[in-house]
Amino acid sequence: MASSHESQVRNHLEVARELLESWPARFRYPEVLAFLVRERNAHVPEDAVALGRAVLAHLGGRPARVVCEELLERGEFDAAEYLLAGFEELREHEADRLTRQLESLRVKAAEFVRQRVATLGRRAVAAGVPWEIGPDEADLLVEQARSGRPLVVARLDELAGGLERSIAEASRELADRVLSMQGEAAAGRLDRAVERITALLDAGELVAAAALLNREPPGAPIPEGATPLPAWKEEWDPRKFLEYHLTPGRPRPPWFFEWRAADPSGQELLEAHGRLDHEGTAEAAEAFARALSSFLGAADGHIAATPIEGSPFHRAFFDGLFADSVLERLHPNGRVDLYVGGPGAVGLPEPREGQAPYVVAGPWVESPGYTDRRAAAVLSLRDLLRLVVLPGTQDRAAAVLGILAPQWPVTALAGNSGTDLARRLGGDPDEAWRTLRWISHLSLHLGPAAVQALENCTGMDPHLLLVMLQYAENSVASGTSAEHWAAAEDGWQRDEALTHALEKDLTGRCGGPGAEAAWWAALAASDAATGHVSREEATDMAEACAAPPGIRGEIPAAVDDLVRRGLLTEVGETAGDTLRVPLSGITRTLRAGADQRLTALLQRLTHAQEERRDSESAWHLNRFATVPVYPRWRAAEAGGADRSELEELAAEAEVQLRGQDPEEFGAAWECQDAVLAAVLDLLAEECREAHPKTRLDVRCLPTLRVAVPEPVLRAVLYEVLDNAAEATAGQDGAVVQVLVEQESPEVLVEVRDSGPGLPEGIRRGRIFGSMYTTRGKGRGEGLHRVRGFLRAYATRSVGADIEVIESGDPGLTGAAFRLVLPEHDG
């Protein structure tokens, strides 16, 4: 009978499908569309009446736009696509918006499935239970998510439920063995091994828990396997506890037995801390630093403590915090600065500029409780009392870091740059995963599911990982947690501020708007599954998106630059035409709107080019003042020549400039001298038009002449002034000062600016080298050419040149240069 009823239902649904497929009003009912696009006779309502009730509930239907938005909200993507393709009454802008929203939601659904499958797979491996999903079925689920989210979510929930039941069953068996261990534990003291195994069971790390139960090596340590510190009650007085430790003859409560130091190194550490209560000497600080190092298992060594002037603290260091094979990756040298306070030490010592994260300890030192993280982390007496109960040194370093790392910036463990983090993670994927778990657990208290979100989103790109870790740090400071990035909470994609920060990092690493355009073009043209794209496809995509003139010639060089930066990779062992965009969750998400982003960026570039051509052309033409085509170019600009003619002249000027030899300038011009003030006045006027926010302060005798031809002088001064103006761009109250002094037979021209100055650590001679630049493609010859120009006009008595000097002006602390010119003897 059941079979007969099922057959009747299916027949009814067949009839319903045939009728509905030709019903003009079908586009006004989401339930109808969802039914029509699903595979015939699969996942259908229990009977045909259900479909009719859904229609009757909204008699007359709803606007197609509302229906489409509802379908998108439900995750019925194929049904939404069916509506967009078949309902012609939608306005063009509405259809375009909904189509883009559909593709974006499909990408997000696919990422949700990828992340959740990976999370469940890792959980199964950690628990040592079978996992049903292989790579092929995982890919199938991802593809199904693009059709519709509800059915895939139901399948994942079914898989997750089965996995959790398997884990619970295996966990119960291990928990029974743990109970028997507790019965065998030493009387009056909780067995730390039991605590450790229990923590592993709670985290689902059954493989590691079983290894500990069997007295086998547990493999690579994981954060959840570290022995937890005992709980501390707020009403307890740490100083009273310290007295119990330091005065054995004093009566102590029976429960204090559980708080005794586990070995002599713990007792020595507490004694060294107690000494600080009445002795603020260097010797007492050194003793505490040695005791802390010894407690962490570091070899005995000489530790010197130096007093901090005007402070009750001594500066020392300690070892052992990063000695473990897992933790050593998190700190390059392992040694940590330690500030030890004496009897009157309260508050925290001020760090030196640029100081690495450090530790502060003392009898009265407590954490200030700031929500923002600082270089100083406090190791209080309460912390020491909880630490000394840990037996051996195996878990002590992780426990100490668990106290310190949440007080430090996350960069203390992750490094200050993506390059630093890459070194910490290493090249092996399994080691990188474990290291990321340690960083996330110690500094941010993130569990494996949230770390899985980090991996899924970034593809383990260290630069993107650092962005997410720092973003998570800000979330912790604001009282929230990055655990909502886990797949069970709908993933990281719901966090729009995070995705914006990741996009900003990716585009910022391109190095400039031209390279950014090439990256968007490559992403938009890339294959969705492999990320493969050819150079020609990227160029074609840029041209198709309203690129400015000349983009085809610029894209190949920009693509090469992206390969050098790691934002694109070459496919195969040798360089070829095929490239690959490294796919990750964030790049797949951004790909959905890449063509739109590219079009907007190219429009901005075109507009910027036109603005520069209108307002800055006169200024930047000075760069070419020494080439033969320069007078014709100036005349063409003044005469309103069309763009193609000007571009031809510009190309000719570039060729002539590259082929110039400064030594040939001697006979190039009839007039071999120039009035310096007149040239400066002309340049200042053009510079103000190109850089209106920068104020020029020019001080020069009006009649001073130099033995340098006017075109050379114009080109030389342009390069130096343009450098200064660009350095101060966007700065409120930006100033560039030109100060001229006559010291016969020399004329000294000093140019100072209020910008940020030269890059830190740069060798002064290097900036005059060929191709050195901080200003982008094509600008690496400026100061090198200036030096060549000037040295061509050196005399026996004047060593014409350019040099970097100290500014000497408290208001102009940016870069400062001195040009030495020969004075005209007439």
Explain this structure.
- The protein has 826 residues and is α+β, with helices and mostly antiparallel strands.
- The strands form 4 sheets. A 5-stranded mixed sheet has the order 1-2-3-4-5, covered by helices on one side. A 5-stranded mixed sheet has the order 10-12-13-15-14, with helices on one face.
- The termini are far apart.
- Mean pLDDT is 83; it is low at 40-46, 186-190 and 771-780.
Features:
alpha+beta; 826 residues; 15 strands; 5-stranded mixed β-sheet
The main pleated sheet reads as: 5 strands, mixed
- The number of distinct β-strands equals 15
Strand content: 5-15%
In angstroms, what is the radius of gyration? 35 Å
Explain briefly what this protein structure is.
By secondary structure, this protein is of the alpha+beta class. The radius of gyration is 35 Å and the shape is flat.
SSE topology sketch:
Blueprint: H1 2-21, H2 30-37, H3 48-56, H4 64-74, H5 77-86, H6 92-127, H7 135-147, H8 149-184, H9 192-202, H10 206-213, H11 238-246, H12 264-276, H13 282-295, E1 306-307, E2 313-318, E3 336-341, E4 358-361, E5 376-378, H14 381-387, H15 396-404, H16 411-414, H17 418-425, H18 429-444, H19 448-458, H20 462-477, H21 496-508, H22 513-525, E6 532-534, H23 535-544, H24 551-564, E7 569-570, E8 578-580, H25 585-591, H26 594-615, H27 617-620, H28 630-638, H29 643-658, E9 674-675, H30 676-690, E10 695-699, E11 705-706, H31 710-727, E12 735-743, E13 746-753, H32 782-791, E14 801-804, E15 816-822
Parallel strand pairs: 3-4, 4-5, 10-12
Antiparallel strand pairs: 1-2, 2-3, 6-8, 7-8, 9-11, 12-13, 13-15, 14-15
Helix pairs in contact: 2-5, 4-5, 4-6, 5-6, 6-7, 6-8, 6-19, 7-8, 8-9, 8-10, 9-10, 12-13, 12-14, 17-20, 19-20, 20-21, 22-23, 22-24, 22-26, 23-24, 28-29, 30-31, 31-32
